[in-house]
Amino acid sequence: MSWVDETGRHEGYVTAVLADGGEPAPRPGGRMPWWACNGADGPRAVGVRGACTCGWRGSATHPVDFGDDEATEGHEAEAGPYADWDGHATAAEGLVPYDVEQLLGALQRRIEELSESRPVTALRIAARVESAAPRYSADAARAARRGLVSWETIGRAFSTSGEAAQDRFARQIAD
Ligand SMILES: [Zn+2]
Predict the structure, then answer these.
(1) SS3 breakdown of the chain: % helix, strand, coil, rounded to 5?
(2) What is the Cβ-side half-sphere exposure of residue 29, based on CA atoms within 13 angstroms?
(3) Distance from Cα 89 to the centre of ligand 1, integer Å
(4) How far apart are CA 83 and CA 167, in angstroms?
(5) 136 C-alpha to ligand 1 centroid (Å)
(6) What is the pLDDT of residues 60-87, one digit of tens each?
(7) CA 86 from centre of chain
(8) pTM to 2 decimals?
(9) What are the residues whose beta carbons fall under 8 Å from the beta carbon of 62, sequence distance 6 or more?
(10) What domain of life (predicted)?
């Protein structure tokens, strides 16, 4: 199984890690899937790591369980090859697009300026931002769920767990 990030520039997958720390050679027509490295007919994986078509490799080696693809790949897990790859794709593409960084920076500078000259106005602006922010978060979480983004990934965007994100948003989204 492989995963593609929102930009389409990163296709993640899980690769076998062999006893010497290396990876199996590709087989004709494509890469060697980790589950094929079971020692029966070629090398045996001692673990797995996240990989990306851009050339990135996860630095962590995770346990391999030949009977459990989900546990090995960790698509819904907070730690594992998928989480490592997701972190890589997010870091590689920047957390937030440049134009949004500019907007947020300009807003912050403007509030700081007004705090000097018109402090009450600055307070009103800060209050507006504060009251609007939860709606941005809930709307984005709702759209992400509609796009089949996992709770774990939503949680990571808020630097929290999938469970915490679900606790926070599930009811608002259902309303
Ligand atoms: Zn990549």
Answers:
(1) 50, 10, 35
(2) 0
(3) 5
(4) 20
(5) 28
(6) 999 999 999 999 999 888 899 999 999 9
(7) 4
(8) 0.62
(9) 47, 48, 49, 72, 74, 79, 80, 81
(10) Bacteria
